[in-house]
Amino acid sequence: xxxxxxxxxxxxxxxxxxxxxxxxxxxxxxxxxxxxxxxxxxxxxxxxxxxxxxxxxxxxxxxxxxxxxxxxxxxxxxxxxxxxxxxxxxxxxxxxxxxxxxxxxxxxxxxxxxxxxxxxxxxxxxxxxxxxxxxxxxxxxxxxxxxxxxxxxxxxxxxxxxxxxxxxxxxxxxxxxxxxxxxxxxxxxxxxxxxxxxxxxxxxxxxxxxxxxxxxxxxxxxxxxxxxxxxxxxxxxxxxxxxxxxxxxxxxxxxxxxxxxxxxxxxxxxxxxxxxxxxxxxxxxxxxxxxxxxxxxxxxxxxxxxxxxxxxxxxxxxxxxxxx
Length: 324
Known about the structure:
mainly alpha, Receptor-associated Protein, flat
């Protein structure tokens, strides 16, 4: 165990304090405190509440007013802290980067109700925690060499961890959409050929299937019910997803709608094309299996096999011909 010099620990604590003060000033937290305090007073006046602890205790005997005041203070502190971290994340994230995060969240399906503001808030929280951990690591282990590299890695990991999570979620969601598209188009084609309109068939697909593709179709229907045209809703679907097959399907349906081509014929062709592409992807994945299994075979299976086969022979040789 590495014993740290007391002077180094003192310097580390001072650096942490300075970093906290700089984060507090740079994030605009004092302005956030004043703003939230004014908003809280306005809400209290609208709701007819009295922020005084004595009047609240008089209305609720037995300490109920004190408990309500404590809960209000805790909620206010939580809001102020969230506002400060949001300012930190916004200052560290450029405007163009925030628009990119918005598109990325659309592709990821907004997991756990994430918005751009919440994601930026998480990035600010990660950067703050990474800074504290990095400074403590430097104070304990030293300020040069591998500890400095490790501290920088911790800081960057805390800031970019939410981005990596959203990227991973978006990639998995795109893979699921690609896998579900062929079956959904088959159901959509059967529904249209049975006599349903395109909107009603799309509603049947979104209602009778699960997964991200059904969620996207349901969002298209909601936009159409709010007054957006079919072409605009489908183009928005193609814009917020990165699946080439789905973008091609949306563009084909929009073009067919503009040219007056029967939608059933277009859907039948699209469904057949998606089934063919699904078969081709399955064959491609099957051809990649020998290459992917080569490294586990060489690194894991072959050494164990050699130990099982040659181990008894080596033991017998050592027993028969002992070393002099």
